[in-house]
Amino acid sequence: MQRTIETNATIGRLKELRQRGVMTNVDLGALERLYRERYARFLRLAEAIVRDPELAREVVQETFARVIRSRSRHRGEGSVEAWVWRTLVNAARSAVRDRSRRAVAVADVPEPRGSANGHEPDDGVRALVAALPERQRLVLFLRYYADLDYRQIADALEIQEGTVAATLNHAHTAIRRALETEVHP
Q1: Cα pseudo-dihedral 178, 180, 182, 185, rounded to 10
Q2: What's the alpha-carbon Rg for the chain, to the nearest Å?
Q3: pTM above 0.70, yes or no
Q4: What is the number of alpha carbons within 13 Å of residue 127 lying toward its C-beta?
Q5: CA–CA gap between residue 79 and residue 51 (Å, rounded)
Q6: Distance from chain centroid for Cα 4
Q7: What is the pLDDT of residue 181?
Q8: Is the backbone of residue 118 left (phi > 0), alpha (psi -120 to 50) or beta?
Q9: CB 148, CB 88: distance < 8 Å
Q10: I want to staple 46 with a disulfide (CB 3.0 to 4.6 A). Which of 56, 112, 115, 182 is the partner?
Q11: Quick one: angle between helices 80-98 and 28-50, nearest 10?
Q12: Which one, of 42, 51, 49, 50, lies nearest residue 6 by Cα?
């Protein structure tokens, strides 16, 4: 219910801005569609980064507020969707920095809702993902929580596709090695 109210409020603000002709460099209709179609994915990524469902909702709302406020600065380089993903990652990072004084338990790293392989989430894997360097975690989150392809991840993080592939490979290798060490100490 809360999500529906927040979503409807944001969509209402977007429609109002479109009617007033406020959006200049970004098609408001496309932004509204993106919000409606990708909200759950935006929320999953924000939750994976900030590790708090309530804060994640705030991050998604802040992301769209930032996009609206900075619409005139959008250079048109890359897609609007990549710009929104990048803004979301930056907003989530800022939220984490803002609350960095408080310790967050490693076990609080959320798993994607509904495992694709049908297995229950493993707290050991959560801890391993949380221990990865930030870039590796972000690439994993964008790939598996937001379901973005390599090109979209590259655009969102402003890196090359080859860097995405290498970073994802390093993350998989680190997790695999740590799991093998647990099984065969």
Answers
A1: -110
A2: 18
A3: no
A4: 8
A5: 27
A6: 20
A7: 84
A8: left
A9: no
A10: 56
A11: 30
A12: 42
Neighbours of 2 (CB within 10 A): 8
**Cβ proximity of 136 and 170 under 8 Å:** yes
Q: Which residues of the chain have pLDDT under 70?
A: 1-26, 75-76, 101-122, 184-185
pLDDT digits 0-9 by tens, 79-101: 888 989 999 999 999 999 888 75
At residue 73, the pLDDT reads 74
The Cα 164–Cα 151 span in angstroms is 8
| Burial class of residue 183, CB neighbours in 10 A (0-12, 13-18, 19+) | exposed
Is residue 136 within 8 Å of residue 129, measured between CB atoms? no
Q: Are 12 and 1 in contact (CB under 8 A)?
A: no
CA atoms of 148 and 44, how far apart (whole Å): 12
Category of 170 on φ-ψ map: left (φ > 0), alpha (ψ -120 to 50) or beta: alpha
| Phi-psi map region of 114: left, alpha, beta (phi>0 left; psi -120 to 50 alpha) | left
Tokens coding 26: 């970004």
